[in-house]
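Anyone else keep sequences and structure tokens together like this?

Example one:
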Amino acid sequence: MEGENHTSMAQFILIGFSEDPSLQPILFGLFLSMYLITVLGNLLIILAITSDPHLHTPMYFFLSKLSFVDICFTSTTIPKMLVNIQTQRKDFSYSECLTQLYFFMIFGGMDNFLLTVMAFDRFVAICHPLNYSVTMNTHFCSLLVLVSWIIMFCVAMLHVLLIKLLTFSVGTKIPHFFCELVQLLKAASSDTLVNTICLYLSAALFGVFPATGILFSYYQILSSLMKMSSTTSKHKAFSTCGSHLCVVCLFYGTGLGVYLSSAVSYSADRSMMASVMYTVVTPMLNPFIYSLRNKDVKGALGRLLSRAISFPSCICDL
């Protein structure tokens, strides 16, 4: 098929998980349920943190931002996939694909940055507790989040502009359920050397360095915990750090699985399943991990739900 530059009429064809009509209702129900659980769980975390003054601390400030980003991260891929399953359509316009890629990279990168910042927050709180309130002040926390947004807006735009320089065949088939950068580079019919170099540089800068920072923070935290004599302090520190560490392992483990599976022995099905883990399963599990392992969050959720239950009865009394 003849290669040509993209125009607004160009389209991709997303293969998805299965072309078997009997499996479509099952896939639709499964992903719809997971999406609703993700949105509801993260929304409850946000509401609990914003409504409870006891949780107006840097740690929970970053957690509320992480929950918001997780909702947006999942919303860039799942709703479109559900529409495609329901309408039995696999075509995806060029502009839609680039828009999805742009926001997917922004929210995926923000997940990465926020997990790193949360590790730094725990490092300061445990290793330098006397300077915590001065270091992690409101302005500094807001600045960290703002700078992270600006960086990801710029990096995502750079990748999108480089993609626009590539050439694709008309009706290019992508063996995935969303427009992922790696899959687009594999489907291109023109040279992708510059794009690949940019991809690896981005992976090093925004993957390896943050992961190294998280590992260093937890090494310092562990060293400090070993020196603590108070069992209560140790237990509280392990409680807050354990939740974050579980989320970090889920995010980096599943994300790394996508690219390792592609590099070692590429399989479209395996790549899609790994992508489901870090785009759907991880954001869905995050609220449960934080709420089940954190007494403060559980207490705030309990108070939020009790107020929600008592609200209709108050209206009836009026």
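And example two:
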Amino acid sequence: MSVCGEAVGAGSLPSELVVHIFSFLAAPDRLRASAACSHWRECLFYPGLQNRNLQKLSLFGDISILQQHGTISNTYLGKVDPDGKKIKQIQQLFEEILGNSRQLKWLSCGLMLQIVTPTSLSSLSNPIANTMEHLSLLDNHIPGNTTLITAVELERFVNLRSLALDFCDFTAEMARVLADSNHVPLHRLSLLVHSVSIMHKSLDNMPKDENWQALTRNSTNLRVYIMAFDVKSDDMLRILKPSIPLERIHFDSYVTYVSGAVVDLISRQYDKFLTHFILMNDVIDMSAFPDLSDNRNEDPLVLLAWRCTRLSLLAVHGYTVWAHNLIAIARLRGSDLKVLEVTEESIEFDQGELADQDVDPVHNFIEQVSLGLGRPWHAVMDIELLSVFTEPTRHFYREMQSFSEGI
């Protein structure tokens, strides 16, 4: 290079040589080297260099968090990537990473704006697919009836212990594949039920109760986590089969709201499993919160606390929770209820409590809930401080990760 009159220096080395040199460096040294210049940084992220020893890959798309009026539109994507080249380049890079993997056991992709495609998993070699332990594929931007994984593709993942999918993609055939004796017992199943998916896909192929029974026979320790986003109560009554070992459920909505019948069904069917119950309704009009206890002898949330003896987390916002019912919930579950989060605007007092001039109803209420739980308690004053209220899909993805790692 010197003889030819070209620039001499480390920055002038061919990419192939830089990649080869980087292959001898430890990870911290590679990170420091990547700060030298853009050329070295590109070499550092060369797929063949990066992922030979990669065991865990987790991707979450901040920009594609579900919005109040649906998902990020194709119009927006057209503005930032008019010809689709950027998306295609990232798709290709993702497939190269998968194709070069030799030790990958955990693959988790959430709402990545079409980065993951129905052909992405075909890049994984059979030996890697056979040893994969966790697989998460969640993307609400797949058009039409297209799915990210089929039951046939799932047959390669015989050692899968944890799985997360869009509920509409989890079919009866998939349940049969996972229930096969050739598959190791599945321990964790996380399902995202979204109104957009139900609109474009169908619930007709979802597992029936006999499919869940077969799956739990093969996977006796299976626990299920469901997040339902703006799903109609009629659809939830179809989805919630009796044999689902449901441990956690998270409702969040802007348009619809959960009925007392759904909460009652959950408390009756999953009393042996349920530990987490989150009920969110992000309505703008705070003067018209739905009341689950309306026209009922017993409040469904109180019955939930009574029947579900393993309940350890209860969070409510955007639904009317009567003060005396919240006291009952605290007394029923006591110190076993590790988390009880109810927003201040959701709590209502009846006229009898407010009419007693000798007692401060709010002070008495807080004191009674605290005594029931065996620890100091206060209502949630600022919902912006809690991601479960403001960023539901981020919360679901984070909780799904820890839920899966818990095995």
